[in-house]
Amino acid sequence: MSIKETIASAARNLHTVIITAREDDGGIETREAEPYSYRFTGGTEKFFCYDIAKGDTRNFHVNKIISVEETQNSFTPRWGVEV
Q1: pLDDT tens digits, 17-49
Q2: Fewer CB atoms < 10 Å away: N or C end of the chain?
Q3: Residue 79: helix, strand or coil by DSSP?
Q4: pTM of the prediction?
């Protein structure tokens, strides 16, 4: 299953995802997040989510996402889920 298919499955099931992605500074971060949407900004597709540990929204360049895993942790949407 592709990264976007895994995110879509989690969104349909209202499950969080464990996302591992390369940060802009080159570091690698792994976070648990609620999946919400994709947007194109500056010619780049970004994935928008709610980072549970940080308690805030985050976005990742889709091309910098290394892996995504759907958890069994459910969430109540804070906004419309569009993925």
Answers
A1: 999 999 989 999 999 999 999 999 989 999 999
A2: N
A3: coil
A4: 0.94
